[in-house]
């Protein structure tokens, strides 16, 4: 697909903006690499060492001891919730510090009055059940912990998001995705059961077909505002030692790139094979195990498709093995970009190293924090310390830099129907001009309830490429980096750009990832996300009047004492109304 001339004539042009005068914070951002290298990196290494030691000690514990400790910790959470006085104490949230959260939101609700419950002890892998093919884990177990245990067993979570530090609880309560989501859906779709502590201290087990099935479907995207997940059973799949990865360069307009991306994985989802991904049809076997796309400019991208492969196959003469996990290796996104010059090529990557391919460079955000960190000399000397912990980056940035990033930086994941990818890429080029752009497909399953996130109405009557009778194909489009306007020294209104993006999503049945900075009003928040089933669960399980509401947690800006008291008063009124409804 080589139509650069056509691309030039049809490409939407970015908004032209006046030049921006530099202020002190610009220089603080420019030299942010100094505290990053001399403070964040050494401390990150110490934290990683502590995590490693903690993992070794945890692995020594017997399964019975881990189970006993889990029950004791659950009992502590129950006692803490029962200590709360609704008339005296604030609304409930976890005691996790704001800077510990991986998301980019300010977590401003934790800077106001609240009633905290400590969940920091829930970081154990409780059981790897190879018969039922599920992993039973606590909410603070990270993806790095899990893949370290499961990959040597040739097992993996069905959806294993790329960042080491992402936790099970966050991925269930918000959202999680990986290159296998075009088969298995979002992370929450792979959850088999959840153990949840409710507002009144009851502990229940929710599955899709037991008496708490409504809670099972209500927890995803709820941001922990219905109850506390204290354990989850998650689907495991069998894998092989390597990923056979094909890099395919694409050139053309943004819509042509989007079509090439769709064609790279959804060719087998034709009308004749809309059955389960686990089926035995020949066409189903053509679906790659992993899919990822990166758009490097308005006219160039690279699509990657991976298939699990045995060590025997990978080590055959003539096959190339790329150990991307070595500290001195080029950052993955830059290495993939070489396909634009080399043409299509194939190589084998050890599976766990492939899973965490974007961790060292924080996708491509590390380039902004330490501009020379991608150079060979830095990778060779200090690459083993990368990446700096996001927690430490937040602590060292200060209020001024934090506000600067909100105004002059974009970190947004948006979920859009597959057939809308070309349109959102054009919108992003015009309003954001952020490159590279990450593309990752995922199935959005049709649930038996009106969940917060659901496919377009009637999609099954008019199926498009990638759709099936029970799921619509969506794509996570990731915009992470400084906008072109900022890099050119022009004015850029980050809040206004995000508002425009949010309105585009509402108009096109898209969704904004909840870790990202949001400018949504309460009315627009519930236009984007369906509140029907969420409100039902909040009322039925007593969360109203105890837990913060989803929008309250999402709302940008420091909460004033007046806002906090208004939210608490509103919660008490809602709780009384819910009790009255239940009595009727």
TrEMBL record:
Family matches, as SUPFAM superfamilies: FAD-binding/transporter-associated domain-like (SSF56176)
Report if keyword Signal is assigned: no
The protein's location, in the record's own words, is: Membrane
- What EC number(s) does the entry state? 1.3.1.72
Note the superkingdom of the native organism.
Answer: Eukaryota
Q: How does it sit in the membrane?
A: Single-pass membrane protein
| Name of the protein | Delta(24)-sterol reductase
Q: Whose protein is this, by species?
A: Panicum virgatum
